[in-house]
Amino acid sequence: MIMRALIVSLLSVGAVAIPTAAFAEEPIQPITAAKPKNEKMVELGKMLFFDPRLSKSGFISCNSCHNLSMGGTDNLQTSIGHNWHQGPINAPTVLNSSMNLAQFWDGRAKDLKEQAGGPIANPGEMGFTHELAVGVLQSMPEYRTRFKQLFNKDKIDIGMVTDAIAAFEETLVTPDSRFDKWLKGDKQAINQTELDGYKLFKESGCTSCHNGAAVGGGSFQKFGIHEPYKTTNKAEGRFAVTGKDADRFMFKVPTLRNVELTYPYFHDGAAATLEEAVDTMGRLQLGRKFTKDENAKIVAFLKTLTGKQPEITLPILPPSVKDTPKPKPFG
Known about the structure:
There is one protein chain. By secondary structure, this protein is an all-alpha fold. It folds into 2 domains: 2-30 and 178-305, Orthogonal Bundle (Cytochrome Bc1 Complex, Chain D, domain 2); 39-169, Orthogonal Bundle (Cytochrome Bc1 Complex, Chain D, domain 2), CATH 1.10.760. 32% of the residues lie in helices and 2% in strands. The protein contains 11 helices and 2 strands; from the N terminus they run ααααααααβαβαα. Helix 8 (192-203) packs across helix 11 (292-303). The protein starts with 38 loop residues before the first helix and ends in a 28-residue tail after the last helix.
């Protein structure tokens, strides 16, 4: 690759990579279970993550596009927003997102807190405003009580909302994949085909970008190095944030954790299968045409990266009251 990937320090509440002699020489490190600082904050964040009343329609929640039953994505080429608006880009997984150097494909949000507020006020996503969303929450006594206990304030504001959502999202890590177990010394955790796939993955240069505990998420890279990527999608990557021509088509490298669950692939969702994604990445990013056998081995390795999915008990949300603003699903 033209640019070496940046390996990000992961000493955060969401996930921690702890190098040991068993895997210190590998470009990928295992991840550990989340250790939340404030369980009550996490619980409030979970309620907000699943509450569709943060949208104008009263129908779309964070979980709509980042479905925790589907690898933290919606498995659509681009997401469906308010009033059936077609989203401009593929929804990245929320799983292990605390390990990214920034949020969104173009990195326009520096962290999960900043990211959490974006969709609520985006007319093509949840279609609301921060003020209206806060007003909905403020109308319900149970929400007021929970926010008061955590923030010691009578009035809810959007910063409190995004703090709580971010705290919940930081817990959405997926440890104990078969590959993690192999890294930690269980040599029976993966088979020979999968091991051969990992060796190919390293030898071909994939780990230049897909490294660290998240197996990605630590750098921005140009999509289309050895040949241009052809797409009708209008997203221009990091260029939309910086305005620098050198950043055109520079996208955040996605995590490969749980990648078998997060189809379709790429920012435009154009690759329907892992096999197609591996073939495209080989040609465009590495200048290499993988054989059918090589492709199968790399795909087999990638499937070992599926970790333990978050065990979520659905929250019982506070009921709306007579003063709660009514949703407008068809407005």
